[in-house]
Amino acid sequence: MARILVVDDDPDLVESVTVSLEKKNHVVIPAYGGIEGLEKAKKEKPDAIILDVMMPDKNGYEVCKELKADQVCQNIPILLLTAVASKISTTTYTHRMGMETEADDYVDKPVEPKELVRLVERLLKK
Amino acid sequence: MNHHEVVHILVVDDEKIIRDGSQRILTKEGWKVETAENGEVGLELIKMGDFQIILLDLMMPGIRGMEVLKKIREEYPKLIVIVITGYATIDNAVEAMKNGAYDFISKPFTPDQLRIVVRRAEDKLKLEHEAELLRRERERSLKDIAYEKTRTFTIINQMADGVLVTDKHGTIVLHNPAATRLFGLGKDPPLGKHIFDWTKSNELTQIVEGVLSMEGANPPQGMTRELSWGSPPNVFFVAHAAPVRNEDGEVLGSVTIFNDVTWFKKLDQMKSDFVEMVSHELRSPLSSIRQSTSLITDRLVGEINEKQQEILSRILDRLDGLLLMINNLLDLSRIEAGGLIQQTEKIFLPEIIQSAVELMTPEAGKKKLHFEVTCDPQLCTIHADRQGMETIFTNLLTNAVKYNQEDGKVIINAQNRGEFVEIKVTDTGVGISKVDLPNIFDKFFRIRTEYTRKVVGSGLGLPLVKAIIEAHLGTITVESEFEKGTTFTILLPRGIS
Fold first, then answer.
1. Which of B15-29, B211-225, B300-314, B433-447 has the lowest mean pLDDT?
2. Which of the pair, A83 or A55, is modelled with greater confidence?
């Protein structure tokens, strides 16, 4: 069992991710925007963070960068969730952004709930 | 006077024997001859008639020959006058010549002497006529040239495309208003300036100097390049430069035509932005719907019955189709914006083909399809964008599987072809009819048959494949036999080795 922060401006997505994770007995802390996500990460110190990239108030790359620069939070593994995705050019793009922001893993939307759970659990083991 | 007309001669002499004799002799030669017995009658006849040569006796009663000569010269300067003088009156002859006579003949003369002097006069007539023709011709060509010049000038000045002409040193010798407009240098006269000094464009200078250095027996082909102007670039044009050569093939200068494509660029950018915006806006909610639906089908929110499972699976399939289309649209708009080939690297195609085959194996298993992959062991590596290559083969193999028959085959063959690598992807599927074949690379084109109706597709897979291949300067062609199968042949350049 782990405490996982899910940051996405789309409530439906937070909902579906929550259901998948709770099924595996994880506890989900929802955040519906970049700024809220940043605050909750610092306050709650979750075991892992699922972080959407495209958010209107503060995008996921920035949130990720700030967290990785934060003394308290820098060791929390982060999974970037991108909707920019499409196969050809963006995986390169996402990869590069992942490198720059030091995200621990990234996945393109939409992602199967099972796959998402698998990726998070893989991060938790590290 | 018409060149072919018979020469018309008038003999003016008071001696009948001279008049009649001359008339007889000259008529025999084919000339038309009339006579007058004194100056008055002569002048009268000249007024009425159409003579070219006058034989004029200087010693006549009544009005003197010399007076007649002066009158003729004044009033009919084109007439050729040959004076007839007495043997001892050379002085008269000299005076007559001074007064404009063409020649003289002294009495008594032989028929031969007469013929010779008249023939000489006739030759002069012919020469004058030819000279006149030549003069007119020259005048006409001068007019033509002047006309041609103004016409060319007008054409060049009215052209919407810019024109710059340089000499062999790259100095501008001709330009049109469209060129100065395009460069926004209307106030700065370009004539006499070096192309670089005027445009400050390295790229343009490069291509102009490029064509100027095209020496030798090369065919006079030009160079074409897309250039932008301003910072940030706000004018886009295609420059076609070509050398101007003389007969020996020596380069004398260059002509560059500028095609303004700014408007197309702007439209294209607007279209790409629009497509990208719409795609993103569609993609997020669709992702969300798909993820929520997956929660149900994965039994994460409770049990469902078989019928519900079946319906939800169909929903997921259609959602995947939509998402695929949006992904392809995004990719296409990026390719069209020129951002496809991000980085090229050395690629050994059999590896890419193998992973695409593995990706398709589960799908292929459902239809009991067999893959036959044969690659030349000596196959060259190519320089290409890895993800682009993956997209090509994933798309082609997806089609080869989707549109195949049960127990069918997918055959992939890769060979070296000179500077190219050739890959053939053949399926034993439903094939494409002759009517549909020319359209399969068109965006959103989908073949409508009983069979394809059941297959989810976006109509963007093949356009995407083609765009990627063309961005790599390769080609793709297709052959197909309806209900037998289809073969796609790809040629990709090996690139820098």
1. B211-225
2. A55
Q: What letter would DSSP give residue B437?
A: G
Q: Structure tokens of B236?
A: 């886009």
Supply the Cα-derived Rg of chain B in whole angstroms. Answer: 46
- Using a CB–CB cutoff of 8 Å, tell me whether B467 touches chain A: no
pLDDT single digits (tens) B460-473? 788 889 888 888 88
Chain B residues whose beta carbon lies within 8 Å of the beta carbon of residue A89? 331, 334, 339-340, 342, 387
Shared domain check, B330 and B225 = no
Which residues constitute the domain of residue A47? 3-125
CB distance B461 to B328 below 8 Å: yes
Minimum CA–CA partner of B284 in chain A: A83
Same domain, B221 and B271: no
Contact A19 B327 (CB under 8 A): no
Nearest-by-CA chain B residue for A17: B291
Q: Which residue of B has its CA nearest to A86?
A: B327
Interchain CB contact of B231 with A (< 8 Å): no
Answer yes or no: do B361 and B480 share one domain.
yes
Q: Hey, which bits of B376-449 come out as E strands?
A: 382-384, 409-417, 420-427
- Which residue out of B278, B279, B291, B392 would a mutagenesis test of the A interface target, given it has the greatest number of A Cβ atoms within 10 Å? B291
The CATH number for B251's domain is 3.30.450.20
In this prediction, residue B228 carries a pLDDT of 81
Chain B, nearest residue to A21 by Cα: B300
Cβ–Cβ below 8 Å for A109 and B287: yes
Helix (H) or strand (E) holding B173: strand B172-175
The DSSP code sequence of A61-93 is HHHHHHHHH-TTTTTS-EEEEESS--HHHHHHH
Across the range B12-38, mean pLDDT stands at 91
B275 touches chain A (CB under 8 A): no
B contact residues 284-303, partner A, Cβ 8 Å cutoff? 284-292, 294-295, 298, 300-301
The helix/strand/coil state of B244 is strand
State whether B405 and B464 are in the same domain.
yes
CA A55 to centroid of chain Cα atoms? 12
**Which structural domain range is residue B474 located in?**
345-493
Q: Give me the CATH number covering residue B307.
A: 1.10.287
Q: Is the ipTM of this complex over 0.85?
A: no
Which residues in chain B have Cβ-Cβ distances shorter than 8 Å to A113? 291, 294-295, 298, 300
| Sequential DSSP letters for B53-112 | EEEEESS-SSS-HHHHHHHHHHH-TTSEEEEEE-TT-HHHHHHHHHTT--EEEESS--HH
Q: Does A25 touch chain B (CB under 8 A)?
A: no
